Batch of 2 targets.
Target 1
Amino acid sequence: MSTLLVDKVKTIKTLNNIADSGLNVFKKDTFTIDNDSENPDAIVVRSFNMHSLDFGSNLKAIARAGAGVNNIPVEKCTEQGIVVFNTPGANANAVKEMVLTTLMASSRNLFDGVAWTKTLEGEGEQIPKLVEAGKKQFVGKEIKGKTLGVIGLGAIGALVANDALDLDMDVIGFDPFISVDTAWNLSRNVQRAMTIEELFANSDYITVHVPLTDETKGMFNQGTFSIMKQGVQILNFSRGELVHETDMEAALENGKVGRYITDFPNENVIKMKNTISIPHLGASTQESEENCAIMAARQVKDFLETGNIKNS
Ligand code: MLT
């Protein structure tokens, strides 16, 4: 029987599903492959960083229960003939909902307003008067009629684009890797930017949904900020390294970027003004964790049984 090692894939349903597949499942919260019984045929991993791990001699496949594979040493795997899977689309709805939630909440200054209201604790009867001041301070903007630029029109980007249209936004799409016409279920009402510069120049909000590669690393930088509208709001639920941090800090400071919403906080980002930092919650829903884990387990099962390496 093939052995499968699983990291924090929490739902019992998922584990049952994997177990039903006829695999011998070990669930581990930390990875050390330190004895023969833990010399797995395959590993399903979510967040654990696999870069420093010595693979056991049996390892044939690693499946990432998520979209990004930057916690997996893909090159080393390729050299050793280990197949790497990911689960494109399985968490797309969760990320889409988070993008639209934060986009609207940011436009209405909701995060600042809620934090400010908390400071009124203890003010007693003064609260209604103080609330009037807060009301003036946190006047927001509606997203209706504003332009959303969506970079990357894969599973997540296409969902965001389509739903933003339903919210009466104008939507411009661009994809650096795939032809916009082959993008997943994309509404015909999404305007297709011919170049990324066209998207940058015309968007009030920009959301990015591309993987981290040599081409996309640092794509938000001083040069690209200079093309954008004054006060543009940027949402990053893809990878922190897409943004050049020092340039972002300067752009937030001088108001070129009105707000940076990011799922990838670090010491620098947290201290920047006008930043909404979220602890990598974009895909963190019960449904998405389950979808990703099931998809990853099925891929591995199929691969171990039939040798199929199709990532679906
Ligand atoms: C992903 O790569 O799928 C996302 O970053 C979500 C996650 O890993 O939590």
Target 2
Amino acid sequence: MTAVDDRPTAEIGHARKRKEDQRLITGRTRWTDNISLPGMLHLAMVRSPFAHATITGIDTGAARAATGVVAVFTGADIADIQGVNITAWPLNAEQKTPDHLPMPSDRVAHAGEIVAVVAARSAAAARDAAELVDVDYDELPAVLDLKEAATDAVLAHPGLGTNRSAVWQLDSQEGGTGGDVDEAIARAREGGIVIEREYRQQRLIPAFMEPRSTVVDPTGEQVTMWSATQVPHILRFCIAATTGLPESKIRVIAPDVGGGFGGKLQTTPEEFITLAVARKLGKPCKFTETRSETMVSGHHGRDQWQRLTLVAERDGTVTGLKVELLADLGAYAALVGGGVPVLGAWMFNSIYKFPAYRFTTTNYYTNKTWVDAYRGAGRPEATYAIERLMDELASEVGVDPLEIREKNWIRHDEFPFTTVAGMTYDSGNYEAATARARELFGYDELRAEQRRRRESGDPVQLGIGVSTFTEMCGLAPSRVLGALNYGAGGWEHATIRMLTTGTVEVITGTSAHGQGHETAWSQIVADRLGVPFENIEVLHGDTQIAPKGMDTYGSRSLVVGGEALVLAADKVIEKARPLAAHLLEASPDDLEFSGGRFTVRGTDKGVGITDIALSTWTGHDYPEGMELSLDADATYDPVNFSFPHGTHLCAMEVDTETGAVTMRSYVCVDDIGTIINPLIVEGQVHGGLVQGIAQALWEGAEYDEQGTLVTGSFVDYTLPTAADTISFVTDHTTSPSTYNSLGTKGVGEAGTIASTPAVVNAIVDAVRHLGVTDVRMPCTPERVWKAIQGAGSGT
Ligand code: MCN
């Protein structure tokens, strides 16, 4: 059979403007909250003001009597149909998992938990009546601090008997990929270098543009749910698995969704409650949260303490790494939840050749809202720790931070390389990315300026931050996820339908919420089938139209979903081949396919694939028995993760008198293999950088001693805008992935993963000569100033 022509063509690599943006930025889209159905009711949630309390009584009388109110439900009222919030897929058999009902009727375990719901004829009436619901609580002691949780002195869930959810470990010696880390540490204590540090990953709040919103219509043959979700397929599965509704009777639609960053990867109590109320009343219902509700009860990200021991020879050659995490899951085990810190297990060792390694995470419950994936999930935390440690090692050895990395990283001629954590990185070139970043940054000139400022005693000092990172993304082979006890597979599905008049329908199981899949997927299919970009329509985010899919998270959509498209397109071509052979009166084996045309090898006789599609409309030209269809399905399960990498360099100015920090320049050179659309990639990198920089400088969720979120609005939670950042310099090197035919690696989280340590390394570098070795994030002027004063961590 003739191979499909897979030469790169014009579409892949073309910086096309996103086709979806026209409707998104001109108000011609329909967000979930814009959906209005005849007779639709509006819901408002009554939420606990207490972090931990027993519910002793709920009086809904006044609310029921209020104008416009149709019904008020407590947890007991919908107990029969509310289902359970699908929470953890346990990390191991020992994991302790508290029950998690969407609306509990006996006890609340975090402030913001829902205790009643009002259904009314308008959103305003529902909100007003919610204030009239009178709930009696008996307050219980709450555990809010992660380290306190580890003592079990106060229990987040007394019934569990402990706050500990699970312990999970990866030991290189047991896995057979490395030596004994305890022995390496003992050896280093005898004359090598031992660096012991404790870093804090503060809680972050995903801040997507469109708050979460759900509409449920129970009146048709099927129950239809519209939701601002990243995961329509997973949501449908969870509803079917826990409410008793047959999967075939549930249609989930994710219309245009205004961002998620992991924060819409959860199946939420609000979705289950809206479904339950709609079914109880037999009427369409809508719930749209306020921004403060997102912040108080949506899931948060990060929240870890990291205890780290890195050991090395005196010349800086690393000999071992021990990682002990305490991870705060909040009140409940979420969909990925306990798996988030576990993702770090393969990433703390990063691009370096550690001969011995042990990773342990101990996950705890506290009385705060739950924690799950937030852009990068597990990998930013790991990258932060190792990149901070590499700077500490460089300082200890007395060499440049880039030199210490170069000494320890995997050289480009060593790929494929199986790391001490057992991951096989297929390709990469850390030397090339670093050389390019160094050049664009003007590394040597900036180091010279730094020296001059130090010597002159300038109150504004300059620091240079380095972050050479890799990440595992494109989750992942299903069998690997299975070994980790994840409840979902890592495959993706695609359907391609060649319509008869020249257009092509592409149906994907990925669920874009800002990533531009309609554009990028059109580019991939246009290239493969040789049809014009403009003739391709991408459909997604509706379980009726795209019944199979694993949705969008973990920078998986291109490397998994994009590859499924390639497989489906190749099947279309192979289905067209016998039809073309018949039309051309040639043998199928003598046909070549290129640029959308089959030609008989060695002649100019040919037929276009769109003409073949048209000819199947009548079928007049074909003999009996030929399949008259150019539609094909493909499901693709990747063979491995993809491993993008890059070098990020950041220059920060630190005013040693006030602690104020200013970003001077930021250069990143990312290697994400083949790039489908450089414009989309640029946007992804920019957005990712701002989120990572925000963790370093501004963002942090804070609770008071009662467990009230004090950063529950944008007045208190510092979310940066474009005005707070500088122009970034971005570039790319290319080491194609060998794990997929397009050679692509994911980009959706790269900027976030790499940038946080680059910024903090730069700040510490600026004031290291003053004795500062750490500044706790977010590095506010107060913390920086205190660190300088006390030459401590500036807590
Ligand atoms: N791309 C490309 N060439 C590459 C890699 C990617 O052209 N070598 C393009 C892809 O075609 C796709 C986009 O970049 O259009 C992102 O691709 P990918 O890295 O596969 O990531 P996903 O599409 O799976 O998106 C998920 C990722 C994650 S995990 C978070 S969090 C995140 C992110 O995407 N949340 C986002 N980017 C976001 N962007 C927006 N606007 N909003 C969010 O909520």
